[in-house]
Amino acid sequence: MANLKDISRQIKSVKNTQKTTKAMKLVSSAKLRRTQQLSEQAKSYAFKINDILSEIATRIANVQDEANISRAFVPNESPKTVDIVFVTADKGLCGGFNMTTIKAVRNLIEEYSSKGTTVRLRAAGRKGIDYFNFQGRELTDSIVGLTSAPTYEKASDFIADAFEEFNTGATDKVIMVYNGFLNMLTQELKTKTILPVELNSVSVEQQSSSMLDVEPDDDEEILNELTSKYVDFNMYYSLIDSLAAEHSARMQAMENATNNAKERVNDLTVEYNKARQAAITTELIEIISGVESMK
Questions:
Q1: N or C: which end of the chain has fewer CB within 10 A?
Q2: What does the alpha-carbon distance between residue 167 and residue 163 come to, in Å, rounded to a whole number?
Q3: Could you give the strand order of the β-sheet that contains 141-143, starting from the edge strand earlier in sequence?
């Protein structure tokens, strides 16, 4: 039977851990609410810029021959070089949140490498960086601190090299991978090709009723500027969406840890009571035996 002092010490330790995990859950819950609001606002803008880019690109494609269309809008089914931009958290204690993204990246590496395609990695987030560094995998670009406090300017700076190298032909495809927010209890893995741009279908009726009017001389300049904004904002939105998912995952993980700590305290309390009862019984037997021996 365990010593009463040892059991008491374990109960105290587990209760302290329970307080910590409960506090972390409350902090993550508060951060989630703020990040979720920001994510919803960014999501509306992301959808709108995609719609506008799709419509302008479709209009221009209708009046230009295929050879003059920007490579940012031409699908490439056999890329020679692929950039994978992925987002993980800077911190842990969020269940399998980071490993979900890492596994998806590993699968993409295997898929493209099997076809003879060169795969380059661009990582945002300490956990992903640490993992691939440990695996001995070279990273083309990496940044720490951006995923925990994302800003549009920093997101734009991070993705700028990938966009520039795609325009110069150094890479043929840019894929973004991250674990996004679905609801308070669920995260959703998102894998999206951001270059070449996957355009939404624009019907003739939508084009005829649109308020957009593009001057022929301005088409290339407008497309380049919109494509740049599209890539920058997709990077920013992925960081915001991933941060909301991270807080959601950490909130769940801390809630599970708190519940497990509570169960452990209950088990230790039962064990403590049994040990104390056994100690009392032993003392009573010793007293009775002493009295009997004096008779």
A1: C
A2: 6
A3: 141-143, 118-124, 81-87, 173-181, 187-195
CATH number assigned to the domain comprising residue 41? 3.40.1380.10
Domain-embedded: residue 27: no
Q: Which stretch of 41-45, 81-85, 100-104, 247-251 has the lowest confidence by average pLDDT?
A: 41-45
Q: Domain limits at 283?
A: 4-20+254-294
pLDDT band at 208 (very low <50, low <70, confident <90, very high): very low
86 closest CA partner among 194, 5, 9: 194
Question: Is there a contact between 5 and 268 (Cβ–Cβ < 8 Å)?
Answer: no
Using the CB atoms, write b or e for 181-199: b if 16+ within 10 Å: beeeeebeebeeebbbbeb
Confidence band of 112 (pLDDT split at 50, 70, 90): very high
- Residue 1 is inside which H or E element, if any? none
Domain assignment of residue 26, yes or no: no
> H or E element: which one contains 175?
strand 173-181
* Position 109 in a domain: yes
**What pLDDT is stored for residue 205 in this prediction?**
43
Average pLDDT over residues 132-140: 95
Distance CA(235)–CA(87), nearest Å, equals 9
Is 144 a residue whose pLDDT tops 60? Answer: yes
The 10 Å Cβ neighbour count of residue 219 is: 19
